[in-house]
Amino acid sequence: MRDAAPTTIxxxxxxxxxxxxxxxxxxxxxxxxxxxxxxxxxxxxNPEAPGHRFFLHGEELRLIRAAIDGAEVTPEITDAGLxxxxxxxxxxxxxxxxxxxxxxxxxxxxxxxxxxxxTQCEAEGFxxxxxxxxxxxxxxxxxxRINGTHPVLLSNGNPVxxxxxxxxxxxxxxxxxxxxxxxxxxxxxxxDRFTTVSGREVDLNLWVRPGDEDKCxxxxxxxxxxxxxxxxxYGREYDLDVFNIVAVDxxxxxxMENKGLNIFNSAAVLASPETSTxxxxxxxxxxxxxxxxxxWTGNRITCRDWFQLCLKEGLTVFRDAQFTSDLRSAPVKRxxxxxxxxxRQFPEDQGPLSHPVRPESFQEINNFxxxxxxEKGAEVIGMLKRLxxxxxxxxxxxxxxxxxxxxxxxxxxxxxxxxxxxxxxxAQFKHWYSQAGTPRLTVEEAWQDGTFTLTLSQxxxxxxxxxxxxxxxxxxxxxxxxxxxxxxxxTEVLELTQARQSFSFEGLAARPVASVLxxxxxxxxxxxxxxxxxxxxxxAHDTDPFxxxxxxxxxxxxxxxDMIIExxxxxxxxxxxxxxxxxxxxxxxxxxxxxxGLPSQSELAxxxxxxxxxxxxxxxxxxxxxxxxxxxQHMQDLLPxxxxxxxxxxxxxxxxxxAGRRALGSATLALLSRLDGGAQAAxxxxxxxxxxxxxxxxxxxxxxxxxxxxxxxxYDQWRGDRLVIDKxxxxxxxxxxxxxxxxxxxxxxxxxxxxxxxPNRFRAVFGxxxxxxxxxxxxxxxxxxxxADWLIRLDPVNPQTTARMCAAFQTWRRYDEGRQALIGAQLxxxxxxxxxxxxxxxxxxxxxx
Length: 849
Ligand code: 0A1
Ligand code: ZN
Description:
Radius of gyration: 27 Å
Number of strands: 31
Bound molecules: O-methyl-L-tyrosine, zinc ion
Strand order of the largest sheet: 6-5-9-3-2-12-15-14
């Protein structure tokens, strides 16, 4: 329900809860329409917050009985919770409530997914299960009894007892309520064991619906690798006798790190060569690692309040990226992460939804599980590590775990361990947590008498609520190359702390070419005015793999902008440089595949906007198509050789080597299909024995305006597999021509298999629509209207997923007046809906501005 006046919560208003919780006992009597939850909670007054009123959160609960120390009480109940008089000595609170999991379509709290009970409590879902101080700084041990008829009954911690129709669990580690979990279902386990470094035997189970057993092996291997890696790299050992993972079909996000009982969106854990692409495998491995790593960064050390979300998320994303870099290819991972950052975080940071990595206020915390908190939060940690060095980083992390284990912490606590270890003052560094917006880093060069000077300046644009910005500490990794291509100055990290600052390199024999922001050492927009020749030189010679890729990317970007703005033909300097790199078979195929990528159309729109121009989505589409066509022609002779190099002769393995070859094969096939009308793609589709090849060949056919028969065959083959059918839905929208995108999405939304209440299916169609730049922004406005229709329909059912999808509109101010008027009208139409959720109202109000 929409609040009459939505409440804004502020970081500055934090106060501790007036009571500590020593123990929680919960009993669940499961029933779809009336689950009984009985709680017995030991409270005692918090000596650090005396005299507070006793308030427990609770939403959509039917209170049956409440008692304090055995004596019944009649609390005062509101929509948000209850309050009643409480003793100023330790006491036991008891309550019995009734909830209706079957009616819970929002997928927050206790709900049913395909007949299976499961929970999602982060951020504030536990209050839909029982009355409780539902805040992360209230930590307690939990003992849980589940009474239910399902064969598998799970909760956090270790199993204590079980029998016909019941199971009991005890979690010895104090935790906040958002880490509570319960699962009850007809599930089968893929099981394994892990012996920790100190010899603890841990039972590992991946629980899935019968029929999915053959999709568990990869996830289990990823889990074991994660457990070992965290021991070896961070010295973190697992701390329970069992580790359970459950796959559920209806889930708003990727996965959730509940203590000892991770719950996963089935798309984020189930994998097989026939049904999963290489990208799926890599993502699944990373998410398993991410949730596992939360056991220390999130669970053992949690957040004091939700403003500190980046404390666990930024750090855990950083850790899972390190894990992927170690297991696969570090340069490829870095490039992919930067593509992702520019694709999701930059638009957020440069538009109306911009907020600091640590926000200072919110209305609905679920709206702040963002690319800024997660991915920019991880970048901030990467900068910190670069500034203090690897050894100090390791020491600081050891101190963090030693000092704060069992606590609910803040960013101040986090930075303090670095200050204590290094003696550095991190006051200025902290601006990365409090200032929103993407800094623009401008580079000027000077050369005189053997001295090369780089003048760096920084400027962070105004963002909502933050008109003026202070200079930040920006680590700028720089290397210098001689005109013959040799490196004359190895990578050095320059620390830019002022608005403008110069750095000199002396004693050089010739003017060097500067490779600036190596490894993307800071999340900034780099403005370095290099000539196409200098960029081509870096593309050929840079020793930093990221910047070598970046040189090609910026050449391509400049070429596309020239084509869009001046109407020029594709630049042969870019095409020649690209061919030279692709010819180099000493380079990893995965890296060469990345070289073939172009800046996204949305990124090009942002670049045009930054130059004060109004992007025309159709013109951007046309230029991109023309350049792809020119690339195919230019590389015609090389394509057969690349295909041969991409060939995988061994049995399928989802590792980096094979995945890289398949990525190069797929990028090559896309070019070839522009020349042969899809003949090779049709042949590849027929012989495909893995999902990467099946999907890439099908997408080439659709792109070529063909593939009807193959599309139908694909559907028939995979009709029973919901995750593959999600791909079938999404692909058709993604590959549609701009004038057909909205109609394709509309047609698919009328398909019998379009179960719009399932977030994965909804996102398959409408996420793909929003991602299709020229299709979504087609001048007709049809896509805007279609998406708005569906958001209006979904909001009462699932506010979280609706609100997240609203971000599709966040860049609307970039476009021409006609499009702005069309989008503005749709935003107003949604906002005018009666009873719009708090989630969606907040998102749209911020976007509307
Ligand atoms: N903490 C989880 C993500 C997550 C957040 C919120 C959710 O529901 C609103 C669900 C999952 C993670 O970082 O993986
Ligand atoms: Zn996380």
